[in-house]
Amino acid sequence: MMDAHALLFEEPLLWEMGAPGRSAFSMPERDVPEHPLEPALVGDYPDFPDLSEPEIVRHYTRLSQWNMSVDTTMYPLGSCTMKYNPKTNERQAALPGIARAHPLLPTELSQGLLRLMFELERLLAEITGLDAGSLQPAAGAQGELAGMLIFYAHHADQGRPRTKILIPDTAHGTNPASAALCGFTAVAVPSGPEGILEPDAVAARMDDDTAGIMVTNPNTLGLFETHIRQVADLVHAKGGLVYADGANMNAVLGQVHMGAMGVDVLHLNLHKTFSTPHGGGGPGAGPVCVTQALARYLPVPRVLKVDDHFTLGSDFPQSIGKLHAFYGNFGILARAYSYILSLGADLPRVSQLAVLNANYLRAGLRNHYHLPYDRPCMHECVFSDKHQLPHKVTTLDIAKRLIDYGFHPPTIYFPLVVPGALMIEPTETETKETLDRFIAALVSIAREAETDPERLRQAPLRAQRRRLDEVQAARKPCLTG
Amino acid sequence: MKDIEELHFPEDIRYSQDHEWARPEGDLFVVGISDYAQDQLGDIVFVELPATGRTLTEGEDFGSVESVKAVSELLAPLAGEVVAVNAELEDQPEMVNSQPYKGGWMMKIKPANGADYDQLMDRDAYLNMLKG
Amino acid sequence: MRYLPHTEADIAAMLAAVGCGRLEELFNEIPADCRRTAPLELPPAYSEWALDHHMETLAGTTATAPDYDIYLGAGSYAHHIPETIQQLLRRGELFTAYTPYQPEVSQGTLQAIYEYQTLVARLLGMEAANASIYDGASALAEALLMAVRITKRRRLAISQAIHPLYRQVVETYLRPTGFEIVPLPYGPDGRTDLTPLTDLRDLAAVAVQSPNFFGCIEDVAAVSDAAHADGTALMVAAFSEPLAFGLYSAPGHLGADIVCGEGQSLGIPRSFGGPGLGLFACRTTHLRAMPGRLVGKTVDLEGRRGFVLTLATREQHIRRERATSNICTNQGLCATAAAMYMASLGATGLRQLARLNYDKTGYLQNALQRAGVVLPFTAPVFNEFVVRLPAGSAATHRRLMARRIIAGLPLEPFYPELADHYLLCVTETGSKAAMDRLVAEVTA
Q1: What ipTM was estimated for this complex?
Q2: How many CA atoms lie within 13 A of B26 on its CB side?
Q3: For residue A72, how many other CB atoms are within 10 A of its CB?
Q4: Range in A4-8, A112-116, A188-192, C99-103 the model is least confident about
Q5: Distance between CA C235 and CA C419 in Å, rounded?
Q6: Cβ C108–A65 below 8 Å, yes or no?
Q7: Does some domain include residue C20?
């Protein structure tokens, strides 16, 4: 008996449905005879369920209804920039000349696509204030890896490989993990009482065995690293390089010049700043931009323009090599290109409104939640559960209760330097009315924490599922059915 | 998480600053983590233990305990050779939570120097450290 | 701009609430030495309709079917994609959600990924599959790093019949590590020559691809035996065309320890090479050394079945520099597409489709051979095979291009010894009539 209430249906697993002999696939006609086949090589039929097309459509439609998404509600996941994903971008990426393009076509038969890549690289260089770039990394973490490989190659070329890398304690976990892939030992730099890097802390750790520093600016507390130029000078003076994690670029479009800031390498997350969909966990794209001095290390192939013709060049002997089988997540690049062209000269306004929205939330919530760093923020603000802990209500409870109010929770328990962090990034595409409702919801939850804390500990009560037993999932992993 | 008063700290064992405990058993010492440590970690879902025969220095990382969202290294309270590990924790890591001093023991070591045990904290010293 | 909802009145009210007079003041914290001195030089904003025109112009330059007959494979394959998949993927609830950190409101994504992991494990004959890696190339690099972690050895034997672009990515990933790569040559039948393995010691892994870059089916069981001979080394089986396992035995059934490859064939458009999908599967004994996200089954407070991200302590956001990989965002939506595709085919459909691909390839092989074209490699193939054309073949290739036939991929840039050799690919999308035309034109 299937359980259902209102519009929420229960839905079985794929293999609990269907019947042998059904199919949801239109098999092309057979216009050739059977070709002899060595029986010894033939395997068993894979154990897949047989389903019809209507069953497939209903299954995934129902599953989709169990998700909160940007298209359904405000999704203020800090550091993830969950902005509106324009529909026109989807149309462009689905054009037959893009969706059906084979990556190894002779270049004279894919000129428009190479032009798109060439122009997107130039646009990203202009936006960051750096000189050259590669679109190849498939996500931010692969962009970081590209950056660390460039650091590695640069120091190897100087004749002395370096073994350490400075990483502030506010960094995303991908930073130390990416550095470790290149053999660098991460040296943590504590942020100061203002929540930002202090030049002295960097100077005390920077030496000639340190490859450089990885900085996220604005940082994960949503604060601009105001000493960044001094930090960069310190690092450069010891022969190091400066890497900027561009995860938070949505705060500073058209405002800062990464080259002027002293950045040597930076990655961008096209699925954050440039509106490409997050897809339930990707695909993303993580292009890297670099200064002219480091351009020779960029991944190959590189898109080159010769007269009015575009080609792919691999003759760059100092390149770090390839990171992706082909040119990266081109379909995502096409969406980001569409976004930039749609905004044009309005792009800086994106950051102005993103920062306005974040500061508006900050102003609306600061009397109700603890604000560990009480300074004007950039595109996101970080609160904590300090005021609610005396009622034995934690950040997790607050986050889960937000679901009952119809909002996706913010990022929680990150950055690690704030115990019980609630990291809220509204983005520029939320209206003032939505922000007012979100503030009202969190204010109401703060009140409930005092009057009815148990209600928060039981939350969510109105989602597809109550809280899930993550301990059982980890103790006795069941990863396949 | 519990208040320190709600936690249990036996008298017949000694404690390290990293919240491991050791208990003499013949020539050997049994090692585990304290009630305080398991309470801080929350529900333990996985315990990684060393190979028997491995020689440990004092304070050396000999394995790890994992909760759903954290990993903590285990640091040897005493130097010595690992002569046995608690294989039952592979299937029942929750014993570290429910019986930190009994079923949740982690390894037995043959000490490099049995007198090292005397350098560890007794119950009162450990409690004082916890209360800061 | 239509994505930005703020009216001037909204902005004024919000600025007042935050205590700023002008939008520009929001950036007062940024020191002068970090600022741009000139405005961004960007083209004027395109209207939706002007953008359509511009993008159609760019995309219109690409050679695609049906205007061209394209016999290119090499890791990117033309397969029919049911319209249901395209439409279902555009459900905003699926494509505008993110990593399911909050399981109570992400059960759709979580169940879809759990189903994906299950179908991938069944397809590859393995015990566990992750929620995806970027692509086939980085999946192979991750598999080799995983083998090093498990075995604590630093030497890897890698077949030269693995996709050359995948091998380039592996070299990039391994360059700073100092791990040693020992190449295994391919033999006269187009399969990996395993004889060098008898003299190789202390290997972390032996890696082959099957079907390999030449389309040839490797003797995966023999590779597994050779790899396992010393009791420590792991067998890594890569692939770029998973539809082959609808017909041929899956690598997991032939002794592979880690199976990884490209899943673009499973309902994902080619899109000039990406986004694709890195499939990744292993034995449960090695689960904790595996890179990437995992979804597991559990129950909620009321005992109802549900799904969560699990075993996250392997991952970068918890274990940081000691994580099994730096991967965070993966190819979630592509994995969902692949699950939809596998479910749409079902067991029966997958076998039929794989057989049709096989038969079409066999038809073209026979027809070319009858016309006097040399097929240098003798091993059985799937979808792809190598031909050797008479000297001066570049002119033939160009002549066919002018007649809107892309007659395969020249192999000389990847294998200098294979001048005049081409890799041809046929799938269910190719017709007998088109193949007959190819044969006639090649031999004209």
Answers
A1: 0.98
A2: 5
A3: 17
A4: A4-8
A5: 32
A6: yes
A7: no
* Shared domain check, C270 and C172: yes
Which range of residues forms the domain containing residue C364? 69-81+346-442
Task: Give residues with Cβ within 8 angstroms of C440, minimum separation 6.
Answer: none
Q: What is the pLDDT of residue C356?
A: 98
Stated as kind and residue range, the H or E segment containing A155 is: helix A140-157
Q: What is the CATH number of the domain that holds C370?
A: 3.90.1150.10
pLDDT for A4:
52
Structure tokens at A302: 């590189």
Nearest to B106, CA basis, from B42, B38, B10, B41: B38
Q: Which residue has the tokens 């759903």?
A: B68
| Structural domains of chain A, with CATH | 89-345 (3.40.640.10)
Mean pLDDT of all residues belonging to chain A: 96
> Both C244 and C365 in a single domain?
no
**Looking at chain B, which residue has its C-alpha nearest residue C101?**
B69
Using the structure block, give the residue that is written with the tokens 């070591």.
B109
Cβ separation of A102 and C72 shorter than 8 Å? Answer: yes
Strand-pair partners of A133? A289
d(CA C247, CA A37): 10
To the nearest whole angstrom, how far is the Cα of A451 from the nearest Cα of chain C?
23
- Write down the pLDDT at residue A62: 96
Q: What is the mean pLDDT of residues A144-159?
A: 97
**Tell me: the pLDDT tens digits for C108-138?**
999 999 999 999 999 999 999 999 999 999 9
Kindly state whether residues C94 and C231 are assigned to the same domain: yes
In words, the CATH class of domain B4-113 is mainly beta
Could you tell me if C423 and C407 are in contact, meaning their C-beta atoms sit under 8 angstroms apart? Answer: no
On whether residue C8 sits in a domain, the answer given is no
How many domains are contained in chain C?
A: 2
A6 vs B: CB within 8 A: no
Chain A residues with CB-CB distance to B69 below 8 A: 413
Q: Kindly report the number of other CB atoms within 10 A of residue C392's CB atom.
A: 9
Domain ranges within chain B, ordered by starting residue: 4-113
Q: Pick the closest to residue C132 from A329, B71, A172 (CA basis).
A: A329
**What is the biggest distance separating any 2 CA atoms in chain A, rounded to whole angstroms?**
77
For residues C320 and C180, state if they share a domain.
yes
Q: How many CA atoms lie within 13 A of A135 on its CB side?
A: 34
pLDDT at A6: 55
Among C283, C317, C341, which residue terminates a domain?
Answer: C341
For residue A476, is it left (φ>0), alpha (ψ between -120 and 50) or beta? Answer: beta
Q: Give the position of tokens 């939320």.
A: A430
| C283 assigned to some structural domain | yes
Judging contacts by C-beta atoms under 8 Å, the chain C residues touching residue B70 are 313, 318
Q: Which of A471, A476, A478 should we substitute to test contact with B (largest number of B Cβ atoms within 10 Å)?
A: A471
Residue C54 lies in a domain: no
List all chains that touch chain B, counting a touch as 3 or more CB pairs closer than 8 Å: A, C
Best CA proximity match to A337, nearest among A193, A163, A122, A134: A122
As a whole number, mean pLDDT of residues C231-240 equals 97
Both C329 and C365 in one domain: the answer is no
Q: Judge: B45–A474 Cβ closer than 8 Å, yes or no.
A: yes
Residue C212 and residue C155 share a domain: yes
Count the helix, strand and coil residues of chain B and give each as a percent rounded to the nearest 5: 25, 30, 45
Q: Determine the average pLDDT of the residues in A356-364.
A: 98
Does C328 share its domain with C352? no
Residue A86: is the preceding peptide bond cis (ω within 30°)?
no
The one-letter code for the residue type at C301 is L
**End-of-domain residue from the set C341, C368, C396:** C341
- Residue A1, pLDDT > 70, answer no
Question: C292 and C224, same structural domain?
Answer: yes
Cβ of C340 within 8 Å of Cβ of A56? The answer is yes
**Structure tokens belonging to residue C123:** 């397809």
Q: Is there a contact between C312 and B46 if contact means CB atoms under 8 Å apart? A: no
- The contacts of residue A12 (CB under 8 Å, 6+ apart) are none
